[in-house]
Amino acid sequence: MYNPELDFRAAVPGMAALGVIRTPFLHAKGTPIQVAAAGNTQGVVEVYPEFAEGLKDVAGFERIWLIYLLDRASAPQLIVRPYLDDQERGVFATRSSARPNHIGISAVRLLSIEQNCLFVEGVDILDGTPLLDIKPYVPAFDHFEVARTGWYAGKSVHGATADERFEAQDAIERDS
Amino acid sequence: MYNPELDFRAAVPGMAALGVIRTPFLHAKGTPIQVAAAGNTQGVVEVYPEFAEGLKDVAGFERIWLIYLLDRASAPQLIVRPYLDDQERGVFATRSSARPNHIGISAVRLLSIEQNCLFVEGVDILDGTPLLDIKPYVPAFDHFEVARTGWYAGKSVHGATADERFEAQDAIERDS
User: Fold this and answer.
1) Which has fewest Cβ within 10 Å: A125, B51, B83, B108?
2) What average pLDDT is seen over chain A?
3) Does A40 touch chain B (CB under 8 A)?
4) Do B133 and A101 touch (CB under 8 A)?
5) Neighbours of B128 (CB within 10 A)
6) Which chain A residue is nearest to residue B158, measuring alpha carbons?
7) B150-164 tens-digit pLDDT
8) A136 touches chain B (CB under 8 A)
9) Is residue B141 packed enough to be buried (19+ CB in 10 Å), middle (13-18) or exposed (0-12)?
């Protein structure tokens, strides 16, 4: 059914890395699987100087969305067995990195900004990850009460870390 | 300072549209500026059949993130005057569509799924927008209490709609 060779890409123009996210995590194994599992782990978002002017007023926000490329994830899989479950799930019902387009989002706490560097807390991201966007976290836009949370209901993410299941083979070999 | 000709794009592989988002909004002017302003406006996310297998288990979630390409937005501007303000702000301190990479995110309410179509409520998105990703909205990952919301503090988004300020000129001409 799924044919990754099918080319729907013509409609999506090329994207640019706007910077790089520096974190303590070199390998998927041991990386917190979400911001909620990352505690006070700190990282630095280095925005390329060409884009730094767009950081004006960002310091006023307690939390920001980082949108980034999951550049060391394995090829997309439409059915995955996520970290927090022992069942196979549709990839769009999970936050697995093995997803089409490999886009990740994390609402991290913003500690400070110095020139083009954002110091952040709660990183669940691999070191060297390409940054695609930064947005302010605004409760009116992002903060919703929900009663139904699918298969995540009752799962606890606290302290949960990743393993190599969604890591590209060449990234694993490069790491070893 | 900002030179859109600089090519950082080599590091970001091409992305594919995974589907198309159908909504009642043909033009930026009059489109709700956020989910919170969209009320019960309904839309349909048509996932291309090749990716439909990844929708397994999505129906269990009350709300989902749509990640999409703001394909009719104007060229990136690092400084913008956002809809809710009369001051110029850094684009990364706003949710303006005139941002590098033109990535939009919206946490919409999921009403139902029929085959490869997701019926959703609260759309603040133009008709025909290319879909880049779907993720489940999970409070543990997405729902944070924040005290500081920068220049958005005290602004109300209810009933706010867009105008053509961030729309590409050719999209405006095509519309007229």
Assistant:
1) B83
2) 89
3) no
4) yes
5) 13
6) A140
7) 999 988 877 788 888
8) yes
9) buried
> Cβ(A38)–Cβ(A31) under 8 Å?
no
Among all residues of chain B, which has the CA nearest to that of A140?
B36
Reported ipTM? 0.91
Q: Which chain A residues are within 8 Å of B89, Cβ to Cβ?
A: 56-57
Please list every residue in chain A whose beta carbon sits closer than 8 Å to the beta carbon of residue B53: 1-2, 78-79, 90
Nearest chain B residue to A153 by CA: give it.
B138
Q: Is the CB of residue A22 less than 8 Å from the CB of residue A116?
A: no
Helices (H), A61-149: 139-142
Dump the DSSP string for A60-81: GBSEEEEEEE-TTBPSP-SEE-
Cβ neighbors of B94 (< 8 A, separation 6 or more) are: A57, A136, B80, B82
Q: Is A157 left (phi over 0), alpha (psi -120 to 50) or beta?
A: alpha
Contact A133 B12 (CB under 8 A): no
- B137–A144: do the CB atoms touch at under 8 Å? yes
Which is more confidently placed, A13 or B56? Answer: B56
pLDDT of residue B11: 65
User: What are the angstrom distances between the C-alpha of B135 and each of A18, A105, A128?
Assistant: 23, 10, 23
How does residue A126 score in pLDDT terms, banded at 50, 70 and 90? very high
Cβ distance A50 to B2 less than 8 Å, yes or no, reads yes
- Both tokens of residue B106? 């919206």
Tell me the per-residue pLDDT of B98-134, one tens digit each, with 9 for 90 and over. 999 999 999 999 999 999 999 999 999 999 999 999 9
Token output for A152: 């995540």
